[in-house]
Amino acid sequence: MSEYVTVGKVGEIPENTGKTVEVDGRLVAVFYADNQYHAIDDLCPHAGASLGAGYVEDCVVLCPLHAWRFDIRDGTWCDNRRLKVDAFDVRIQDDDIQVSITPKVVEEDE
After folding, report:
1. What does pLDDT average to over the chain?
2. What domains lie within the chain, and their CATH numbers?
3. What pLDDT score was predicted for residue 42?
4. For range 49-54, the mean pLDDT
């Protein structure tokens, strides 16, 4: 069973933006887009920039340093879908945004 950590309150992350939080000693980017909350690893694997500070459009975050693009729903790199950063389950409990500390497992389509 996954453990969840409260990382904020519903409504404090504006639409199509992100926020960096620490979850179990790890930096996680939490986004609000398409009327849902999503969470992925905050650090871009290219140069370590904060994805939580990136521009979000159509559930894709643009790394502010070198413009690498990641799908905030599952962490995949948009230019090569085989590469990805960890994605985490998010749930709402009352008015709390909670993130699982266990990376989510995404099934392959192939």
Report:
1. 92
2. 4-103 (2.102.10.10)
3. 97
4. 97
